[in-house]
Amino acid sequence: MRDTDLMQLALGLIPPWMVKACAFDAEKRRLDIEIDFAKGGRFPCPQCGTADCPVHDTSMQEWRHLDFFQHQAFLHARVARITCPDCGVKQIAVPWARAGSGFTLLFEAVIMTLVTAMPVRAAARLVKEHDTRLWRIVHHWVEAARARADFASVKRVAIDETAARRGHNYVTLFVDIDQRRVLFVADGRDANTVAAFADDLEAHNGDASRIKEVCIDMSGAFIKGVDYNLTEAEITFDKFHAVKLVNDAVDKVRRAESKDRPELKRSRYLWLKNERHLSAEQSASLDMLSRMHLKTARAYRLRLAFQGIYDQPSPGWGELILDRWYSWAIRSRLEPIKDAARTIMRHRDGILRWFTSKIANGLIEGINSLVQAAKAKARGYRSTRNLKAITYLIAGKLDLRLPT
Ligand SMILES: [Zn+2]
User: Fold this and answer.
1) CA of 31: how far to CAs of 7, 8, 34, 61, 389, in Å?
2) pLDDT in tens, 186-235
3) Which residue of 58, 293, 302, 376 has the fewest C-beta atoms within 10 A of its own C-beta?
4) Ligand 1 mean position to 45 CA, how many Å?
């Protein structure tokens, strides 16, 4: 058996393609494999499928292939243009690469596996390619998989914003709550993001009118976007955002009060964290501060009571306790707490909807931390387009159909 026969087997080439020559360059650590087709070879038309079209002309092309031990491997072949009786002169498709790529399909498959596990920049260093070439591969496979994605079953959606680049601009994530997958990433965080999502949903066999439950924060932009575009959806306001609103009010009370009460300085963490996350020492400090007739302590008790609303066993109890909490909060003489209570009350229906829908954005927080971790490792993506592609790749549950 000749070495070219072996290489032919390894590459899985079938006639008319065959390996013509192999050359090792030990110094350049390079393996070059020349592929050719038999003289008089004929090919099917890439457009209409007509078999046995004659070759019109050829041009040499090169593809990077999987490394052969420490050698970079390249395939070379003259690629034919055929004459089809119906379509005219067309360039044929080669079985080892997709049109327009400088890499073989197997090399691309390896890249796609690498970039789910490490930043694209690191993968680029590993295979000694420029990362823009790798991004091109990522975009191709993600776009192809997204084009096939089916959103027909989507009924419940969580929507949240996330910082895209160093906190300056934002993207909005739309997540299928039941299948725990990112459906869509929109630029910005305004009402138009929901319109863009509705369009994308319909482009993927989904239907905006089939969305029955939506979880969002209390931002006016999302409320408006949902009202206009997801007209059948009931809104649940995310409970983590609601608790955070009250938490922030506690901190405003503490900051104002700490001007006269130095013991409150550096106690921010104690009031904001859940008690079970505090150390024994922190717990003791909180206990002591709580007994000191501080405004902050009263605000803190209101926050605990607000969280407790979510422990109520039924929508009826939830409603009763929320209304009691509101009248307590509004009589508290703590302005930041009163402001928060008014905001909560303006969104009462969506706050109470939680008792029926039981949906929250915790799922997005998880996805978000994946994305933020990937972003940190890559030291920020150069464009939102790249961030979107990585988000779909990591959290979109796409069927990439990579060659094996
Ligand atoms: Zn044709």
Assistant:
1) 11, 14, 10, 15, 32
2) 999 999 999 999 999 999 999 999 999 999 999 999 999 999 999 999 99
3) 293
4) 5
